[in-house]
Amino acid sequence: MSDGHIHVALRVRPLLEREEESGEHAAVEVVPAGAARQEPFVRVLRPVEGHGVGAAARPRGATLRGAQVQVQEFEFDCCLGPAVPQEALFDRLDIGAYCDDALVEGKAATVMCFGQTGSGKTFTMSGRTLGEAEVLAQQQEGDGAADVRLVSEDGLQYRAVRYMARRLREAQGVDGATVQLRASYMELYNETINDLLQGSSGLKCRWAAVSKQFFVEGLMLVECECEEDLLLVLREGQANRQRSCHMLNADSSRSHVLFTMYAETHRADGPTRYGKITFVDLAGSECLKDTGSDVRETRSINQSLFALGNVLERLSELQRLRLRGGADADMKDSTKKKKNAHVDYRSSVLTQLLMDSLDGNCRTLMVACATPSSRFVDESLRTIHYAQRTRSITAAPAQ
User: Fold this and answer.
1) pLDDT digits 0-9 by tens, 169-183
2) Inside any domain, residue 145
3) How many domains does the chain have?
4) How far is Cα 175 from Cα 99, in angstroms, rounded to an integer?
5) Is the whole-model pTM more than 0.70?
6) 82, 195, 249, 273: which could form a disulfide with 14 (CB 3.0–4.6 Å)?
């Protein structure tokens, strides 16, 4: 998985009981590998316009098979159906290799989740959020904040924390090395950066001319010496995360959230290595009419995702030009070359924060999450097409 591609996995959650009760059915499914294909793939069943089957006419649990539908099939680097449990996800996606890039190799790695609200993004990234009563019961029984869990069925970042803590113990002292691990947790809400660890808001994303990267000025970095320290950072950040309850998902997170672990390795026989791994839970992409959300909030989310999509499209275009023999093969003017290769990362704060995840110096995985529900088949297709566009990119190092 180090061939320069942005790798993309697609996860389809189970159809919920309330969806079945309302007459919805599975229109997006993961088809297992077989004689025709060596790897699982995604199949979407979309009613042909004018031939849809009304929800009221379908019995509970009915599908579209036999109706007039348009069948579309898609391939990804990894396709995960409802039967894949949380405990298998970490290994199936090889997240340990991304952690090793940061801690052992001194490189950057990014894992991001994308999809419609209610598609399972936050469940995939963090786990099932516990209710207030469950958390309160733990507080009454436990000995301290470190014992209080905010989620069950741990997601990718909780499992990554445990993996990183174990690898940190193994790396300390090897060949005289000392390893320092720090963590940050921030959200981007309505184009405003909030530090989820110190409660500060309105932080600015600045450009560092020397390193040619964006950074968040004033962001709190917490030194972590063990698994408990990292878990406290996660729990503190999640407790402070901006949420608003709306129609699609009572636990919907309405902001882009970035949890980052930074590794600094000092060796007696070589230069200091700096690595990091960032977990990005992107806010849900949806239509205003479906959510009932605040207009400004939803527009801000969709505009930032649109800007990210434009960056992905531009990177994909540059990749196609490179494959044809070079975009600037006939151009001698260096100014024109730079202009032709320009990618507008400054178009939104989100694209600024994700620049080093896309510029070719970082191992990047996108986990696209889709709902199987026939009600949202168009939204699921938009997610799938977005993910396909991302998968087409072979990132090249920034010049």
Assistant:
1) 998 878 788 999 999
2) yes
3) 1
4) 20
5) yes
6) 82
